Amino acid sequence: MRKALVVAALLLSAPLTLAGPALAAKCGNNAAGFPAWLASFKREAVASGISSRTVEAALGGMTYNSKVIRLDRNQKSFKLSFEQFLARRAPPSTIAIGKRRMKQHAVVLDRVERKYGVPKEVIVSIWGLESGFGGFMGDIPIFSSLSALAYDCRRSAFFTNELMSALRIADRGQMRISEMKGAWAGEIGQTQFLASSYERFAVDFDGDGRPNLIRSPADVFASTANFLRQHGWQKGGDWSPGSSNYGVLRDWNRAEVYRRTIAHFATELTK
Fold it and tell me: Rounded to the nearest 5°, which phi and psi values hold at 216?
């Protein structure tokens, strides 16, 4: 299952806005400049309105995570053919589990589908692909992964934005820092939301006062559907390649092989 999480949500659509003055801190490609970068970033995070207490709790004593950088440099899953990718990620055994999960959560999935117009088959296929139906969501503290990636020069602006989003989530009390763990690129929860997407699209569907994409299936399903609807999903439309809704799946994951697998998985769930 760990392999299934290597890059699943990295290509999730997220705003590519710059994170303000924090980008003035010098990025780097090795551990040498990380302490200076981190000190500068922490000052800018506080200046942006995030409490110093949250910043220190999340980033105090942080060290450079070289493992995350190696994983970022070694993405191979999307180089597979569709047939190879499908065999690894959505074989018949996984589709059979998906059908059982769809029945298990039928009541809430039907409610989500009625509200957001996104078919339950699509939601469950994404759920299965992203975390094995919640079986493994990643165990890397996201502030460790995001700080390394924000410092790294390859995509510093993108991940600086994600790190700021994660700090705001913690500062608002939406998630405890201790529970903010995920895959190597900082993805959160059962359908692997990047922090910026969590801020924009996470939904408290079970009514307990906060969205919880780690433990609440209702929140997971509704948030996933909300993401797709907000990106243009057309109620009643199909999701086959070439359709408008298939185009929306690109905002979930830009890899063609991944979108084809979502579409195939969802179609199999209808049978």
Answer: -110, 105
Taking only the tens place, the pLDDT of each residue in 181-199 is: 999 999 999 999 999 999 9
Closest C-alpha among 20, 2, 250 to residue 150 = 20
The reported pTM is: 0.89
Q: Which residues contact 105 (CB under 8 A, 6 or more apart)?
A: 217, 221
Is 130 catalytic? The answer is yes
* Contacts made by residues 229-232, CB under 8 angstroms, sequence distance 24+: 229/116, 229/117, 229/118, 230/200, 230/201, 231/13
In whole numbers, what is the pLDDT of the chain averaged over residues? 91
Catalytic residue among 113, 130, 187, 199: 130
With beta carbons less than 8 A apart as the criterion, state whether 6 and 72 touch. Answer: no
Query: Distance (Å, rounded) from C-alpha 224 to C-alpha 118?
Result: 9
Q: What is the dihedral of CA 166, 172, 176, 179, to 10 degrees?
A: -30
Alpha helices for the chain (secondary structure H): 34-47, 52-59, 66-73, 82-89, 92-104, 106-116, 120-131, 142-151, 156-171, 195-201, 217-230, 244-252, 256-269
